[in-house]
Amino acid sequence: GKKSVRQRVVEELKHYYNGFHLLWIDTKVAARMVWRLLHGQVLTRRERRRLLRTCADLFRLVPFLVFVIVPFMEFLLPVFLKLFPEMLPSTFETESKKEEKQKKKLNAKLELAKFLQETIAEMAKRNKADTG
């Protein structure tokens, strides 16, 4: 059924608390990675991607904090999220947004695979015609 306004507000507060908590953990891990980099160690590909994602999240946090700090500006947050869907740091994404992104990526990969299959089939036909 429908949730009361109080329940929705509490859920949103929990969502933002968890998002900030995850961002704090990611920032601590990224700081350790930067420390390792400064001391000459090499990062793995996975660590490098995590470090880049965390840095991007910290840069995205600046405009997001304006909405949190300025009074009554949080009411405009849904409007700006519709205009700029990538504005929130990755730790603030909901499950539905993550699933939607995964579906888009999968569809793009399927289209690419279909294109490559058609290209290979066309090349095979040409080669068969040339040799035949």
From TrEMBL:
<dbReference type="GO" id="GO:0043022">
    <property type="term" value="F:ribosome binding"/>
</dbReference>
<keyword id="KW-0496">Mitochondrion</keyword>
<keyword id="KW-0472">Membrane</keyword>
<keyword id="KW-0999">Mitochondrion inner membrane</keyword>
<dbReference type="Pfam" id="PF07766">
    <property type="entry name" value="LETM1_RBD"/>
</dbReference>
<dbReference type="GO" id="GO:0030003">
    <property type="term" value="P:intracellular monoatomic cation homeostasis"/>
</dbReference>
<dbReference type="InterPro" id="IPR044202">
    <property type="entry name" value="LETM1/MDM38-like"/>
</dbReference>
<keyword id="KW-1133">Transmembrane helix</keyword>
<protein>
    <submittedName>
        <fullName>LETM1 protein</fullName>
    </submittedName>
</protein>
<keyword id="KW-0812">Transmembrane</keyword>
<dbReference type="InterPro" id="IPR033122">
    <property type="entry name" value="LETM1-like_RBD"/>
</dbReference>
<feature type="transmembrane region" description="Helical">
    <location>
        <begin position="58"/>
        <end position="81"/>
    </location>
</feature>
<dbReference type="GO" id="GO:0005743">
    <property type="term" value="C:mitochondrial inner membrane"/>
</dbReference>
<feature type="domain" description="Letm1 RBD">
    <location>
        <begin position="43"/>
        <end position="128"/>
    </location>
</feature>
